[in-house]
Amino acid sequence: MGLLARLLGRKGDDNAHVRPLWHAVVARARNPRLYAHCGVADTVPGRFDAITLVLSLVLLRMEHDAELAPHTGRLTELFVTDMDGQLRESGVGDLVVGKHIGKQMMVLGGRLGALRDALAQADDAALLAAIGRNVTLLDGADPALLAAELRTLAAQLATKDAAAILAGDLA
After folding, report:
1. Is 22 exposed, middle or buried (0-12, 13-18, 19+ CB in 10 A)?
2. pLDDT (tens digit per residue) in 80-109
């Protein structure tokens, strides 16, 4: 915290400990492989889909770890803050930003539930259905490629300890 912030009585960044993780989520969602190989559309809706998919997998990993679970709210706050800024930057006015954020949170919640259920299945039928409902893909893209990528990321996350996850080590 800077001197000016201390003088004005502002408290520190409550989300600082999860900020590296948020940056890693965004970086992973921007990985060109998701777009070029897996067929996620490189559009605003497609990029939002990629972020919510990666964030959902990270949140699912965190909810199964007693050390990480308390930090899910802070990570979600960073998602909301970032989406708020993106909406305002794209010209969405103050009066409707909250409504848009509410919709985005519903989307995130839906994806969390869909991925939680789909990843628990041995085959990819439920995961392919979830991708079909929730992801903006390029015409002709094979959703099985994205399903494999999501399963790979989920498996990678499962091998990481809490400190690595909070540090943003998602690979």
Report:
1. buried
2. 888 776 766 777 666 677 787 788 888 899
Q: List residues bridging with 111 in a β-sheet.
A: none
* DSSP symbols for the chain: --HHHHHTT----TTGGGHHHHHHHHHHHT-HHHHHTT-B-SSHHHHHHHHHHHHHHHHHHHHT-TTTGGGHHHHHHHHHHHHHHHHHHTT--HHHHHHHHHHHHHHHHHHHHHHHHHHTSSSSHHHHHHHHHH--B-TT--HHHHHHHHHHHHHHHHTS-HHHHHTT---
Kindly calculate the radius of gyration of the chain based on its CA atoms and give it in whole angstroms: 17
Cβ atoms 97, 91 nearer than 8 A: no
* Contact predicate 150/115, CB 8 Å: yes
Please tell me the pTM assigned to this model.
0.88
CB 79 within 8 A of CB 108: yes
